[in-house]
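During the no-cost extension, the postdoctoral fellow (Dr. R.K.) reprocessed legacy sequence entries with the updated structure-token encoder. One reprocessed record is reproduced below for audit purposes.
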Amino acid sequence: MADVMIAVMPFVGHVAPLAAVARAFFADGHAVRVYTGSAHAPVFAGLGAEIIPWTAAPDFDEHDLTPTFPALRGRKGPRQMLANVEHLFIRTAAPQSDDLVAAWAERPWDVIVADNLSLGARLASERTGSPWVTVAIVPLAIPSRELPPPSLGIPPARGPAGRLRDAALRRLLPLATRGMRSAYLEQRELCGLPVAERSFDDAWYSPDLVCASGVPELEYPRSDLPEQVVFVGALTTPPRATGELPAWWPELVEPAASVVHVTQGTLNVDPNDLIEPAMGALGRQDVTLVVTTGRADAPDLPFPVPPNARVAGLLPYGELLPHVDVMITNGGWGGVLAGLAHGIPLVIAGGDLDKPEIATRVAWAGAGVNLRTGTPSARRVLEGWRRVASTPSYRENARRIAASLAGHDGPAEVVAHTMGLLATRTGTGRNDEKP
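Re-encoded structure tokens follow.
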């Protein structure tokens, strides 16, 4: 049995996959502690995990970030992405590591397993000398000498001019991210750590083991992918509703028309961004619209709902997606993988954070249409839906990716790879060198 510390950034999209990983560690007989925010602690406590709360680190409300992080006020698009990374993920890293080191002092763990945006886990690993496993719950953002900088939503170059463009962007990246790089050095200094041997770009990933959600079919070809990266498929479906299914649910079991699922995701859930234009686009089409607002406590919409639409806060994807023909999504990675796992072609309106990158990868893989904005017009949504619904190759490619995802049991593979790492470290599967 291993003593496992799981570090989870307190966002719904991070909690769902890491809860599945925690469940798999329990099933394999290991002891599990979880470090996360108070809003999501009950999820892991319900699994039997011991909770280590955010104490030194600021415990925040993911649906209202600006009271805790005022620098995020009024930002959207690329400016929001840069500000989010700096203030939410980097500038909380030192206090996160303080919380984790305090837990280590009470009872050392054998391994820390963390989502790849939990930078505090990396610093805690360095401070304690303990093994660290990264679970990449968003697409890999490991730089490559052969690709454009990650997270820009730019597909690989196809010719000499494109390769020159990518090289120029790689040179500009340190300038564009110098604020984040400076913040990272400050956090290391606060922890009493020296300047890192590995670059800031590599700081988010363990040098020993990276369990990447997804499959190679959604990863750009490259010859310099680090050898510690293993793809584990999907980790879980997005958060599901609890309680009874809506009264209109039987309409999906034997639908009278094609079913189109529209989801705003679970972060930045302004329904005017995607849900409203999707309803405007498809409200008069011969389809059944199944819409989720992303908030279980806020299932209603502030605008009229067309007769062919059915609305809920959250729905059980395991039961919904087998009935869906096309999915219109804001591009959250968990929802995208869930849709593709069911062979559903996608229309993606990815506006901020990692979503433009996800939309670009899905379009590159031929499994969906990238609307290239998080706030599309109704006409743009309609054109995207018509293209996906009428072109067989999108469904064929989605089914090809589904077959690849079906070959994985993501949470169990994370456990197996982690225990393999510990075995190579100690010869026993435990970290017997801890004090």
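The chain has a mean pLDDT of 90. The chain has two domains: 3-234+408-426, 250-406. The remaining legacy entries will be reprocessed before the final report is submitted.
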